[in-house]
Amino acid sequence: MFRYLTGILDTRERMTWKIYAVLSLISPIVDIFSFSVIIYIINIVVRENQASPELTAFTVFMVLVSMLKCLFELYKSKIANRFVYEGAQKLSMKIYELLIKENLTEHNKKTAMQALNMVRNDTTNCIQIIVDWIGIVINGITMAGFAAVLIYVSKWIGVVSSIILLLLMAVVFFRMRTRMREYGERSRAWSIKANSQITIAYGSFKEMKIDDRSTFVLHKYGDASQAYAQVQGEYKYKISSIGVILQNSIMAAMFVILAVILVFGTNLSAILAPMVVYITALVRMLPMAYNVLNGMNNVEFAEKSYEALKECMAEYSLLKEEEKRSEAVRQKTLTLQKGVSVRNLTFGYSDRVHIFQDASIDIPVGCSIAVIGASGAGKTTFVDLLLGLLKPQSGHVFFDDYDIVTQSDAEGPCRAGMGELVSYIPQTVYLNGETIRNNVAFFEEEEEVDEARVIECLKCAQIWEDVRKMPDGIHTLIGENGTAISGGQRQRIALARALYKDFELLVMDEATAALDMETEKAVIDSIRQIKADKTLIMVTHHMSLANECDVVYKIEDQKILRVR
Fold it and tell me: What is a single cellular component term in the Gene Ontology annotation (predicted)?
């Protein structure tokens, strides 16, 4: 686990953890040295019954060493925290890159809260595992050093005490190990579920209010959050109980050893100094034993995060290998001079019947195409296949001579992106909580937004008059997912976003479903006027809109049939 996690770090983070490990190793060396000095000073004072000036000066020097060690510990803590959060940030970037570059099929298997947990929590937990392992090793070495001093000073008493402490630690860890993994898995699952209930409340707010189901939603969140709190409470109790068990068990063992000494009539005055050292060393070892067990339990608790991260990083490695292979392939600039041609397309989601079976369609350049069909016939799936978001089991999708399925043209394998060629309005539109301006120029840098072009696109989408009357115009905030505006306004802003992009092919998946017929026709007329030579593909249920198109296709019986 430790080797794997340190192996996936960047060069800088690898150097940081090594520096932290070295700094952590210095601390116990200073501790053992300081403790040995205390033994040395006590022995001299007891033997000579006085302190020389040199001894006093040396003691003052050790005071300064202790103060410097305090500053050193603060610096080490800073390094550790920086390593955890910077390392987690770098890992989160890799996981986030995977999430936004993976294919649509894999994307649809995850919820937003699962993705959020992987990006934020799992990465932090896994970097913390590295710190915990370093702490386990360093505290173990320190304990061994103190145990050696203990045995040297107290002989058989030190041996017995060290063995008792080691056995006690082993018993506690192995009894709690499985439970800690279970706590970690349950805590992660309930955290995701509780957070999901919050998104449900925001995503279905209107239905919740109308159906008067707020109490139901509240109870669902309460159940999840209570389960999470219960798991966390049990976990924290188990962790805190370790200290209690260690402290009281060792205290009882000390009294047993003292009783044995008294039974055998040992001269207490003769062993007073060694006993003071013995007790001091044992007291110093207890926090180290607790830290070792705490670190090991934290590692077990984070096991599920580690498994999730390892799975993601395996997929990330495949992604980067694929990108590397792709870079070696010839680059092609995608064109749309002839049109789009779909040939013998067969597709079905796993474990389901085929949605398309040997389906074909031709989309000439400059034409407007309507795609109709019953609900569930596969209209959105067809769009996803056409745009390369899904890969068919067989068949081809050609943009001119380039096949996006096999990623090749007449000259052989090559790669081409359709980002500069296609503009797309999905069935479910996403708007963030920023301004109308930023939602139209959605992927533009703030300083690169062309406001004149934004206004032109808003006019084309038949929403400029509404925006102009708003208090802040194009700088008006529209709320998360456009909650401050109407459904029709949301769709028209999404349409303006698509028009802001310079495209050759505009694909609209039910993009005007929330508009009245008059506004819908005005929008299409505006698009035709401004983008007269562009190709349009419109998925719609509105026959009035379909009749405005040059060609109408219907998806039926796993085929794409031309009906006009």
Answer: plasma membrane
